[in-house]
Give the backbone structure.
Amino acid sequence: MSSALEDLYQEVILDHHRSPRGFGALEDPTGSAEGFNPLCGDRVRVTVRVRDDRVDDVRFEGVGCAISRASASLMTGAVKGLATTEVLSLGARFRDLVTGKAESATGLGKLAALAGVRNYPLRVKCATLAWHTLEAALEGRGGTVSTEDGG
């Protein structure tokens, strides 16, 4: 990856950390779940409202590092309006990207900004926490999802 591209991605991450999109409480959610990364203390609550099998709205609350907050922020923008099956597929493709199972970020849009996380294995859990939590909320599992329980 070129230095200019890395700088742009870092800028996107810092922007979403400082001014997260989709941050705050969601009224009348159809699903919610809590996420916790005990390795670094990141905590996130994801609430989602699904209508006609599409994500009508999704929000997150919590505290965490820049990677965790930026990932949650980017996630909320990426999944709004998608069918729930598309959300689960997008989440799997995102996890493959940040874990190094996929080299290409094609079709991931701004989520590609987090591709560099794959070079820092401990940060992968920070980047995927909100995604695992959203999946639990969509599937009605609720409760708390831990990065140490396999997500």
Notes: Residues 3-140 form a domain with the Sufe protein. Chain: A fold (CATH 3.90.1010.10).
